[in-house]
Amino acid sequence: MTKIKVVEGSEAVAMAVKACRPQVVAAYPISPQTHIVEALARMAADGELKAEYVRVESEFSAASVVSGASAAGSRSYTASASQGLLLMTEVLYASAGMRLPFVITGVNRSISAPINIQVDHQDTISLRDSGVIQLYVESAQEAYDLHLAAFKIAEHPAIMLPVMVCMDGWVLTHSYEPVEFVEQEKVDNFLPPFKPENFLDVANPKSWGSYAEGDVLMEFKYAIHKAMSEGKAHIRCILAELAALTGRDYGGLVEAYRTDDADVVLVAMGSMAGTIKDAVDDLRREGKKVGLVRIRCYRPFPHEELSAALGRAKLVAVLDANVSIGSEGAVGLDIKSKLNGRPGAPMVVDFIAGLGGREVNAGAVRRIVERTERIFSSGVPISEAEWLDLNPAIVP
Amino acid sequence: MKLTPGAVVKGGTSLNYKTGSWRDQRPEIDQEACKQCGICQEVCPDDAVRQQGDHFEIDYDFCKGCGICAHECTAEAIRMKNEEK
Question: Average pLDDT, stretch A228-236?
């Protein structure tokens, strides 16, 4: 019998991680990730979670512990946010290179300076090139569901990479929602124990990430890229299997919302998609053909699904909760590069939106659509991102 | 040779890769001056100083010529010389 409980997003994640039976959990607390690892620590202390919970002195150590545990053949888990994720960076690149699967919850929070603890995607986007698979969720329920899939994706023999489930800090981690939990037996059937081909063994010593010079380094990097790109087929299957298990289908690598006949398609990731869907409904009632594509799997980049979802849209407006300083937002750049050369490709306008927790409400979505239409009708394409609701009067 | 995912190899294979070729300075031990304190062996980051019976020798297959042994030698018995090949 399925169980529905009103829980905090963090508790939902901890419940999902517990159900996946990790053998090692290592984490260093940082807002807004803290409630997840507090819950797991409590479960381990109470004996509900049969995992070794390693209290480490930094995020660098947390990532190193789960990386080593994974090499030893243990299913392992960590979580962090913001500065903590940046401190893990070196280890995450190395873990992907050594093809060590584990799961990280990347709780989205702004990057210092100035210091800010509110949500944006700058932290996880900074890790997009690391070889770590990135999934973005919209709700606590989806966070719960995708953590179940994350271990299965990471440990797939053709993938063998860390998977990061990115969830918006506070908005998702600290809000209470009704969440439906999957019975343990069903989770166990969905996710069998982790049995890697290679694991650390004193009787049969092996070395991971051995020295590779220029004659083979490119081939090693290409192998990671291939595992991720070709891994899309496996991720699609695993997400379909998960949908069959939970009865909740979010649409695969992307979720297309009212895009079928849309002239203007908005693109976003994470919890802001909820607001955008409401705004899309409002605009639709007024007769505007607007839709939303929510990217759920950002790395590997789902250009096939995205291309299909954009359909015949003339305009694409991307809401990027991050910025590549000196250029544009990451998602906007990805979409533009994938549309390059496509006959009849839509015009893409990139909006830097919601940095440091700035609200992106229905009014802001409406302004984005209007601004995009104005740029299009002016006939002058723009090559710079639009900074949504920027107050130029106070810019130093 | 097919590469293995994650560059996983059998333990100890680094012995087949002679990093001594990277060296441009070569440490030489003056066995007369050496007091056999063994500090050179302790400080060598490449484990390239070996005790052979009653004296110490440099393993030039793996010595990268960093010069730490010469710097730390209490008897000033190790001199760095330009490598000539």
Answer: 98
Helices (H), B1-85: 39-43, 68-72
Q: β-strand A315-320 against B49-52: which pairing, if any?
A: unpaired
Closest approach of B71 to chain A, Cα-based (Å): 28
SS3 A264: strand
pLDDT tens, A147-180? 999 999 999 999 999 999 999 999 999 999 999 9
* CB-CB neighbors (< 8 A) of A206 in chain B: 8-11
pLDDT, average across residues A24-41: 98
Q: In this predicted model, what pLDDT tens digit does every residue of A343-363 receive, in sequence order?
A: 989 999 999 999 999 999 999
- CATH, domain range A3-246: 3.40.50.970
Helix axes A140-155, A9-19, angle to 10 degrees: 30
The pTM of this model reads 0.94
Cβ-based burial of A148 (10 A; exposed 0-12, middle 13-18, buried ≥19): buried
ipTM of the complex: 0.85
CATH 3.40.50.920 for domain A254-394, yes or no, is yes
Residue with tokens 């793996």: B62
Copy the structure tokens of residue A296.
Answer: 């759920």
pLDDT digits (tens, 9 = 90+) for B39-71: 999 999 999 999 999 999 999 999 999 999 999
- φ/ψ of A289, rounded to 5, equals -85, 90
- Closest CA in chain A for residue B10: A206
Label residues A224-242 b or e (16+ Cβ within 10 Å = b).
beebbeebbebbbebbeeb
Q: Evaluate whether A3-246 and A254-394 have a shared fold.
A: yes
Strands (E), A28-175: 52-55, 76-81, 103-108, 133-136, 163-168
Give the residue carrying structure tokens 């390059």.
A340
Q: Is B16 on the interface with A (CB under 8 A)?
A: no
Residues of A with CB below 8 A from B12's CB?
205
Question: How many CB pairs (< 8 A) connect A and B?
Answer: 47
A214 touches chain B (CB under 8 A): no
Residue with tokens 């066995």: B31
Angle between helices A34-45 and A9-19 (to 10 degrees): 50
Q: How many CB atoms lie within 10 A of CB A382?
A: 12
Domains of chain B: 22-82 (3.30.70.20)
Reply yes or no: is the peptide bond before residue A157 cis, omega within 30 of 0: no
- Domain locations in chain A as residue ranges: 3-246, 254-394
CB atoms A207 and B13 under 8 Å = yes
Residues in chain A within 8 Å Cβ distance of B5: 99, 160, 223, 227
Q: For helices A214-246 and A140-155, what crossing angle results, to 10°?
A: 130
A194 is written with which tokens? 């982790």
